[in-house]
Amino acid sequence: MTALRLLLTTDTHLTPRYPNRELPAELWERIDAADVVVHAGDWMDPALLDAFEERAARLVACWGNNDGDDLRARLPETAVEEVGGLRVAVTHETGAADGRERRCDARFGPGGDTPVDVLVFGHSHIPWDSTTPGGVRLLNPGSPTERRREPVCTYMSAEIRDGVLTEVRRHELPPGAPRRR
User: Which segment of the chain is annotated as a signal peptide (predicted)?
Assistant: First the structure.
């Protein structure tokens, strides 16, 4: 079976308030090449969602705490979809790092309300890759536009082969990387 190529991003924070902030060209190239794009919220501009919907072969996305009513009307708080034989959820917030695995297992683990194999989340702008005791893979790709306390902006890519998540990689974006809308 061929691998499904995933692009994971979140916290793009594009808004007309910051007209000079754009997504890195590298991220757009990865979006164009991916089989599935996952965005964990904080879009801030409906035009960006339009662009993702136009360019992504398939988009799995949710809204974030900074997204207004227009984006919340178009996206769920938590999206859950089957992707390549895996149940994948995407939500913006999972709370503090301390206790994250326990909380995510309670909701998304085998005994939770919404059992999944993979949970993609955002909010902190801090990349995260762990597996809960119940076996849920937790991934936060960081932010491609706002590094905050991190040394660089980031996003992730992964593959799904025969129902198994493989090739999970964090990509660092160099400062001053070419950007475009």
Answer: none
Structural domain including 42 reads 4-180
pTM above 0.90, yes or no: yes
pLDDT digits (tens, 9 = 90+) for 98-150: 999 999 999 999 999 999 999 999 999 999 999 999 999 999 999 999 888 88
DSSP assignment of the chain: -PPEEEEEE------TTSTT--EEHHHHHHHHH-SEEEE-S----HHHHHHHHHH-SSEEE---TT--HHHHTTS-SEEEEEETTEEEEEES----STTHHHHHHHHHSTTSSS--SEEE--SS---EEEE-TTS-EEEE---SS--TTSSSEEEEEEEEETTEEEEEEEEEEPTT--EE-
